[in-house]
Design brief:
The chain is of the alpha/beta class and about 210 residues long. The chain is about 50% helix and about 15% strand.
């Protein structure tokens, strides 16, 4: 398994995906967007006419799914990179992500994908520092004001983002929370470059210790 992992958690619109890609590009590392995996499962379930509340059926979709996130998100060989950001997925993804069996299946996939990486990996999501890679070399918790996060997610309203915050933080399975040893970075009003520099500094500090 790759030894160098930068794990980034945070709520919707905190900048995880953008920052993770920028950090990975800066370091020449790979990046894994775990949120896209849950969105892909959600989209596939909806495509098959499965109610997201039908736990067993959704788990079946997750277990059978072949999901890739690079260079574009695909499920079972079908490119869904753009479709996973649809309004329907925005509404249903928190229900799917709260499914404990789906999360268990995705965690195994995420760890397996990490084991295939020969070098460093930047992983972002909502339970990366607490569940998936609790021993990551660097653990970051990104946040920002609700106004800022809703502005960044132009496809979602304040109410939608707040609803997802509540769903993500209150679910029984791997709720969103800041790990005790994660470094919190409030990205409100900060440029991507500034946040990247902060994370690179955290990485350098682990190297020097």
């Amino acid at each position: 398994m790759t030894t160098d992992i930068i794990a980034i958690d945070g709520p919707a619109g905190s900048g995880k995906s953008t920052v993770a890609r920028a950090v990975a590009e800066r370091l020449g590392w790979s990046v894994l967007d775990t949120g896209a995996m849950y969105r892909a499962v959600t989209l596939e379930a909806l495509r098959l006419g499965i109610d997201p509340l039908d736990s067993d059926a959704v788990v079946g979709v997750a277990l059978a799914a072949n999901i890739r996130t690079r260079p574009r998100v695909s499920i079972n060989g079908r490119d869904v990179h753009d479709e996973i950001r649809s309004d329907a997925v925005n509404v249903a993804v928190s229900v799917v992500a709260a499914n404990a069996a789906v999360r268990a299946a995705m965690v195994l996939r995420q760890r397996a994908l990490a084991s295939e990486e020969p070098g460093g990996l930047v992983v972002e999501g909502r339970d990366i520092t607490t569940v998936v890679f609790p021993h990551a070399r660097v653990k970051i918790y990104l946040t920002a004001s609700l106004d800022e996060r809703a502005r960044r997610r132009g496809d979602e309203s304040h109410e939608s983002v707040a609803r997802r915050d509540h769903a993500d933080s209150s679910r029984d399975a791997s709720p969103l929370r800041q790990a005790d040893d994660a470094i919190a970075l409030d990205t409100t009003g900060l440029s991507v470059d500034h946040v990247v520099e902060e994370i690179i500094l955290c990485l350098k500090n682990t190297t020097s210790n």
